[in-house]
Amino acid sequence: MVFKPLKIGKHTIKHPIVQGGMGLGISWDNLAGTVSLNGGLGVISSVGTGYYKDRKYTKKNINERPFEATNFYSRDGFKAIINNAKKIANGKPIAANVLYAINDYGRVARDACELGVDIIITGAGLPTNMPEFTEGYPDVALVPIVSSAKALRIICKRWKQRYDRLPDAIVVEGPKSGGHQGFTYEQCFKDEYQLENLIKPIKEEIKKWGDFPLIAAGGIWDQTDILKVMELGADGVQMGTRFIGTHECDAADNFKQVIIDCEQEDIKLLKSPVGYPARGVSTNLIKLVDKREGPKIKCISNCVSPCHRGQEAKEVGYCIADRLSDAYLGRVETGLFFTGSNGYKLKEIISVKELMNKLVNGEDA
After folding, report:
1. Residues 108 and 98: beta-carbon distance below 8 Å
2. CA-to-CA distance for 225 and 228, rounded, in angstroms?
3. Do the Cβ atoms of 216 and 169 come closer than 8 Å?
4. Is 339 exposed, middle or buried (CB count within 10 Å of its CB: 0-12, 13-18, 19+)?
5. 266 has pLDDT over 60
6. Lower Cβ count inside 10 Å, N or C end of the chain?
7. pLDDT over 90 for what percent of the chain?
8. Residue closest to 49 by CA, chosen among 32, 21, 28
């Protein structure tokens, strides 16, 4: 099978496969750089960059957690990650995922531009003012994540009116993805919100504004899945969970083992302080939270605005910044482990090069 290259703004990706941005610390320099080197689009997560390289890029409080958003989203850590990813990628495009719901969104998006990222992908909210923070960097492609034609229409209308700009591509994410969803808990299980039923109406909406690529995401596992969504109209795919099962993934070995060991029934939609349901593995942490016996909650990093400085964390029963950082550090008992709905299929660790070969040429390649 020969896939067409994926053009995002001024950047051309050899294979139309985007590695999903997985935070905290799951897709940083090693994974993103290697994916780009092997013909996909590597995506750096901007979440928790204050933890990079044993947390030397951040001011910490006595609990060794990054203190305030300016340190949790460390510019110096982000810079080091981007620089190293670009070295690994050897001139191929590199993207960054910057969540709209984070505190300091504008600053982090601006940092991404200034530090040399080629493409910015933004979800977890409706980024109606995204171009405002990337002004002066016309070569940086902007890619919002949407879950409906209505959301795309709102973005295109406001971008066109305010900035005379349209998206360079969009990611359409269905409810089988890992991490936070763009749907209510109930919507995640309804047919009309499944990825295969979102592509056509969103593709029709794109035609009203111009012609930019649609990248399908959520529950895509192998070449068969890629071909299926492309037949429906997708120009490319975004995949996160399967890249966890690579040697180059920046997650701790314990993190990878949690996904490898999980069964289908262990993967659930969880409540989150961000306000959206989030898909992950039901681990010891979730059992403790359900009994209101989870780790102490104290907002140190001030990571996401919907949490209202820890208020939602106390309602839900855990601090998402602290629990994601524990997962990144391999602390199985207190970590929060996000995965897509197909995470249970992950049973081995292979190289990015081998995985890309399987995705492009089939599982037997």
Report:
1. yes
2. 5
3. no
4. buried
5. yes
6. N
7. 78
8. 28
How do beta strands 179-180 and 278-281 pair?
Answer: antiparallel
Work out the angle between the directed axes of helices 75-89 and 29-37 (0-180°, nearest 10): 30
Kindly report the average pLDDT of the chain as a whole number. Answer: 93
Q: Could you please report the per-residue DSSP string of 190-217?
A: SGGGSHHHHHHHHHHHHHTT----EEEE
Q: How confident is the model at residue 39 (pLDDT cuts 50, 70, 90)?
A: very high
21-283-310 Cα angle (round to 5): 65
Q: Do β-strands 6-8 and 11-13 pair in parallel, antiparallel, or remain unpaired?
A: antiparallel
pLDDT in tens, 135-179: 999 999 999 999 999 999 999 999 999 999 999 999 999 999 999
Compute the half-sphere exposure of residue 156: CA atoms within 13 Å on the CB side of its CA.
Answer: 19
Domains of the chain: 7-252+346-361 (3.20.20.70), 256-328 (no CATH)
The predicted model scores a pTM of 0.95
In angstroms, the CA 18 to CA 322 distance is 27
Per-residue pLDDT, averaged over 277-297, amounts to 90
10 Å CB burial of residue 363 (0-12, 13-18, 19+) is exposed
Q: 113: Cβ–Cβ under 8 A, 6 or more apart, which residues?
A: 120, 133, 134, 136, 137, 140
Please name every residue paired with 11 in a beta bridge, in sequence order, or none if there are none.
8
Cβ atoms 221, 169 nearer than 8 A: no
Count other C-beta atoms under 10 Å from residue 210's C-beta: 10
